[in-house]
């Protein structure tokens, strides 16, 4: 009897194991239709660069600031803010809307220190997961409360903009922006698109340092754009990822926004501290929407918080503390203004050096657009095939649309980069 029980027990275990294998096979079939996602066109460049063993390799695809030695930078104002924060704060959750102090200081940067809109409490604002998260929150808000609307996005734009509104299921249209022949702004076509769009359309605008082209409208052109928006009743969402980092002056870089505010627009603004404070990994940002009055602002903010709740519940605290500490202290804020100007000036200096090196090589092409564009990126005008040659023959990495990250250009590699560009552009 004991022997029989032992055999029965063993058979039962085998049946259980066999059933488990069958169950596992059934479970694994759930995902058989999942294909590998395409590589991100920007992040894929860095992966290829890191895998290249060449000592001469150059990465001008990275969208993050580097010093003249090609190294990542942590601002001294950030280090000092961290020293002050260390050990002095608890780790409790922030509210759904994030750090009140950080949001207050962030609004001053965009709307102005003495903004009547802030004083009248007409701005609905929440902390967001950097600029990407701010755009994502707005896209969801747009879908929820203006479900019949579309979003007009410039050609070209930062590639993730399309992903953001796609995932929010907001229909997308495009408007002309870049003029390939002049390497500048296609202003006439842009204005035609704004004029011909259905009244009350939503438009995504880059406040400054347009990514990827580095081409911005002039102040007068911004005024014309604002007037046409007013005539058509369009809504403008400004993505402002480079305030201070474009020209070195945060006030100058916010000029487009101030023009729209002066003209009486109700606008939205997505702000980020990734670039201008070097807080890339902290994901600190803000979404704000200007409303008719305080009552409407309270309602809009409450809905933005409700959208955030199932996405990520509430935003992280450390980066917000860094920002509020810097902007809330006059001494640290002045240090930040000095450091962000230093970063902008280095980028501007590298633009001049790259252009001069190309011209000194006797290039038959015009490279004036390098210094006429602004911000981290230069839209070089090179073709995908020319970019491929730069990578294959010279170990120079950038996105295939010809976008050069000027942050990757240094005094040590600018001559090599210029020579390589000269070779591939003169021989094709």
From TrEMBL:
Residues 56-421 form the Aminotransferase class I/classII large domain. Its cofactor is pyridoxal 5'-phosphate. Its EC number is 2.6.1.1. InterPro entries: Aminotransferase_I/II_large, Asp_trans, NHTrfase_class1_PyrdxlP-BS, PyrdxlP-dep_Trfase, PyrdxlP-dep_Trfase_major, PyrdxlP-dep_Trfase_small. The keyword Lipoprotein does not apply. It catalyses: L-aspartate + 2-oxoglutarate = oxaloacetate + L-glutamate. It comes from the Eukaryota. In eukaryotes there are cytoplasmic, mitochondrial and chloroplastic isozymes. This is Aspartate aminotransferase.
């Amino acid at each position: 009897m004991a022997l029989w029980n032992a055999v029965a027990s063993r058979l039962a275990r085998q049946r259980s194991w066999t059933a488990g294998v069958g169950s596992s096979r059934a479970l694994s079939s759930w995902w058989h239709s999942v294909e590998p996602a395409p590589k991100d066109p920007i992040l894929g460049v860095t992966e290829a660069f890191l895998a290249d063993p060449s000592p001469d390799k150059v990465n001008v695809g990275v969208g993050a600031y580097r010093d003249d030695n090609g190294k990542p930078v942590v601002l001294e104002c950030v280090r000092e803010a961290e020293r002050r924060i260390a050990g002095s704060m608890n780790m409790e959750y922030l509210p759904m809307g994030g750090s009140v102090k950080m949001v207050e200081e962030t609004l001053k940067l965009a709307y102005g220190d003495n903004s009547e809109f802030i004083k009248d409490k007409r701005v609905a604002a929440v902390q967001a997961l950097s600029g990407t998260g701010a755009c994502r929150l707005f896209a969801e808000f747009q879908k929820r409360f203006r479900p019949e609307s579309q979003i007009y996005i410039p050609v070209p734009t930062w590639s993730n903009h399309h992903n953001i509104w796609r995932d929010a299921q907001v229909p997308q249209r495009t408007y002309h922006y870049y003029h390939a022949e002049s390497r500048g702004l296609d202003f006439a076509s842009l204005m035609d698109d704004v004029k011909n769009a259905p009244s009350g359309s939503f438009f995504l605008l880059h406040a400054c340092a347009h990514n990827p082209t580095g081409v911005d409208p002039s102040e007068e052109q911004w005024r014309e754009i604002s007037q046409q928006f007013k005539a058509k009743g369009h809504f403008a969402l400004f993505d402002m990822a480079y305030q201070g980092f474009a020209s070195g002056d945060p006030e100058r870089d916010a000029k487009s926004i101030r023009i729209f505010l002066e003209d009486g627009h109700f606008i939205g603004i997505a702000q980020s501290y990734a670039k201008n404070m070097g807080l890339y990994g902290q994901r600190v940002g803000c979404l704000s929407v200007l409303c008719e009055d305080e009552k409407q602002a309270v309602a809009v903010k409450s809905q933005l918080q409700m959208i955030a709740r199932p996405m990520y519940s509430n935003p992280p605290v450390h980066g917000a503390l860094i920002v509020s500490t810097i902007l809330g202290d006059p001494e640290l804020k002045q240090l930040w203004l000095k450091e962000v100007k230093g970063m902008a000036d280095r980028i501007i200096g590298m633009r001049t050096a790259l252009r001069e090196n190309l011209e000194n090589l006797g290039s038959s092409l015009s490279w004036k657009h390098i210094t006429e564009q602004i911000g981290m990126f230069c839209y070089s005008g090179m073709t995908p095939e020319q970019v491929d040659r730069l990578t294959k023959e010279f170990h120079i990495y950038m996105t295939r649309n010809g976008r050069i990250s000027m942050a990757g250009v240094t005094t040590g590699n600018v001559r090599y980069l210029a020579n390589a560009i000269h070779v591939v552009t003169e021989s094709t």
